[in-house]
Amino acid sequence: MTKPILLTGASGALGRMLAREMAAQGVALRLTDIAPFPDAVPEGASFTKADLNDGVTILRLAEGCRAILHFGGVSVEQPFEDVLGPNLRGLHHIYEAARREGARVVFASSNHSIGFHRQGETLDLDCQFRPDGFYGLSKAYGELMGRLYWDKHGVENANLRIGSCLPAPVDARMLSTWLSYPDLLRLVMACTDAPRLGHAVIWGASANPGSWWARDHRERIGWAPQDNAEDFRATIEKKIHPSEVARRHQGGAFCVIDYSRPTPPPVDAFSLD
Q1: Is the pTM of this model over 0.90?
Q2: How do residues 214-223 score in pLDDT, each as one tens digit?
Q3: Is 95 one of the catalytic residues?
Q4: What is the DSSP string of the chain?
Q5: What is the fold, at CATH topology level, of the domain defined by 5-255?
Q6: Choosing from 135, 141, 149, 181, which is the catalytic residue?
Q7: Domain range annotation of the chain
Q8: What is the pLDDT of residues 19-36, one digit of tens each?
């Protein structure tokens, strides 16, 4: 019998979609979230309400699992103290559970770990982290946690730098960042089923010609996105954020939150900017 997969953040928009679609493909799932599961629990799945800060419960939920899909935690920009517990301490609990069980981790990282890179700049997997807030900073921490647990303990992990994962793109920025639900599903399934993973970084975006993101480890898992934001161009290309800070940086509106520089610096003001 195939071992089950643990999915955290199961009550969120992406978690609910993954739970529904993966269960429909016959994947045995253990679902967990701090919030109640809002839908009927899919056939072949179970749900446990749990806090990522509760390491004992996370260890128990992961027993016998072959993979942990970590989509839990704070998913938007919040004050540091709100991010600290679920996104940092909680992630440590996930990796300790994976180490004990010999499980693979698929981590929902984010484009906000590199959000202060300029729009139009093409980034590879080894680009510098430039988080656009405490949420993005926690995702950079999460990727480094994966690096540590692979190097030190051999825990395989995929770090999915998810762009804008919605049913359809809603503004001009998403011509570059959109990831469709079907492409995310195919990406997660490829990560769980790949014979070899190691420590992998994969840009979570559909096949958008305007993408800012290039080289990554997708060849390890045989994943190629199939959807394309260009199909929506006519309805979204004029929907541009009013802030120059948002328009300039890949993180968009997240870069504006608590931004306190008096004016955005010129693009070439400093070599380190």
Answers
A1: yes
A2: 999 999 999 9
A3: no
A4: -PPPEEEESTTSHHHHHHHHHHHHTT--EEEEESSPP-SPPPTTEEEEE--TT-HHHHHHHHTT-SEEEE--S--S---HHHHIIIIIIHHHHHHHHHHHHT-EEEEEEEGGGSTTSBTT--B-TTPPP--SSHHHHHHHHHHHHHHHHHHHH---EEEEEE-EESSS--STTHHHHEE-HHHHHHHHHHHHH-S--SEEEEEE--S-TT-SB---SGGGTT------GGGGHHHHTT---S-HHHHHBTTGGGGTTT---SSPPPTTS-TT-
A5: Rossmann fold (3.40.50)
A6: 135
A7: 5-255
A8: 999 999 999 999 999 999
